[in-house]
Amino acid sequence: MSDAISRLWAWGRSGRIGLGDSGDRDEPEQVGVDNDWIALSAGGSHTVAVKADGTLWAWGRNNAGQLGLGDTNHHYTPTQVGTDTDWAKKISAGRRHSLAVKADGSLWAWGDNEYGQLGLGDTDERHAPEQVGSNTDWAAISAGRRHSLAVKADGSLWSWGYNDSGQLGLGDTADRNAPEQVGADTDWDLVSAGGEHSLAVKADGTLMVWGLNHLGQLGLGDTVSRDAPVPIASGIALVAGRNHTVAVNPDGTLRAWGDNEYGQLGLGVMRYIVTPSQTVTGSAWAAVNGGSFNHSLGLRDDGTLWAWGRNNYGQLGLGDTDDRATPEQVGSHTDWAAVNAASYHTLAVKNDGTLWAWGRNSSGQLGLSDTNDRHTPERVGSDTDWATVSVGQSHTSAVKPDGTLWAWGWNHYGQLGLGDTSDRLSPEQVGGESNWLAVSTGLHHTVAVKTDGTLWAWGWNVRGQLGLGHTSDRHAPVQVGSDTDWAAVSASGYRTLAVKADGTLWAWGENNNGQLGLGDTDNRNTPAQVGNDADWAAVSTGLFHTLAFKEDDTLWAWGRNHDGQLGLGDTDNRDAPVQVGNETDWSTVSGGGYHTLATMSDGTLRAWGLNTSGQLGQRTMWFDQPQEVPGW
Fold it and tell me: What is the value of pTM for the model shown?
């Protein structure tokens, strides 16, 4: 046991840092007054530590008994685990389980054991340390999110626990509830278990990786998972985070790769971009559309369609469910005319008037007469006269050139406008009128303008988003007021904005983030004018933020800005319109869930806001190869 003397300091999230209360700390604060701590390991929400006298201590959350104190009570200050005084400095805290080695080389485990991560031959939770087998030659240990790794004194590598992505390195994806040797090699040295991936260094310094790789956390230049160790490079020290990896090379340089949502790679890029950036190269973009849950689509001048970002339901139309961090062409067709995306599905119109759909289809929102998802574009019916389409969370509306209005998908709130609340699996005409001009779908409501300039709304009305002076739902179109000078409308989330023929801008519905632009955060259930300007040309609503053009082609933004989606250089919300930069050559804009896309008059594409799934068209969020961290 080392005689090293040190004090312990902590900061971070509530109740997990040993400071005696449940408050957060954003600056280091000393834990108690003791100065004899010699080893420490921080887990998902708890901490274990060893003192110079060989005693073991734990604190933090304890819902699975991960503190080893014989109960499941949370402890906000360091509490001794048992009375033993022979704990070595080899301790490791996982998400909700803990591992430790004693001076005699025996291995002990406690806490969550749902997947056998304690290695005790079963899946029963333990609230106090219990010895893993009878061996006394354990040399190194690491507790991951739900799996465990260890090296013995003979250099053999062992693993157990959850294995859905091959993180145990045993050549399959079956869980193990007791230690099993990884291969036959006996030259393993260091080991680190991450969220669902694993890393280890051999005696010659070779770094080996395996397990989940969806964010490039293995550093192999791809996103393909591995179920057995694969060499990557030489390293002398390493740490696996939940979905990222950090390693030190023999020359002292620090490298990092994998998930970078919160800037955890130290590369100077974060989870969002707060100013309009040309993250996608090229100058032939004609129009863009930002899905409300992290995917993006764009049309080029040559009629090709491109997609990138989140793809868990195939909403990118690329034939799979893999996310894309850079634009990839959807098929090979060059006759796309318009595209519209929502949470998890996409619809597009071709030059020949045909309508195509793909992505999630749980409520028939694709209009393909069933509820099966599609991963590539599939034609909706046989009609060749579709003009415009608008996509809500789980429903779709469209206007044909003959002025008829059509709707399909989820209809729980009457958002299809068909007079009832029954879902439709294929397009059905809304009423018998043929004077509809444009339609826009919100989360679960719909608004539309007729050729006579009247405005109509129906569906969910919980925040007054229908503009009818109350919050009662409507199952069929109801006229909003009596004005006949409405020119354009945009609905998203629980609100609606519209432009009149005189250039004034109006807003109503939910306003908790100032997304109505009315200078406050009060909801409105009837249209209220946004300022006094009469030079508004177009408006686009994101989930909780709003973008609009003026007649001079300047761009303005307001509403929620937690992820920089307003493009104003910060993350402060705005409750009134603020100009984005000073450019006067904006062409089109589309507000997504938490990001924004826009094209300039020269055909370049700008993007800003959240980038967790690559929806901005670049990999600021994850790196699939080791990147050198500057300053080391």
Answer: 0.70
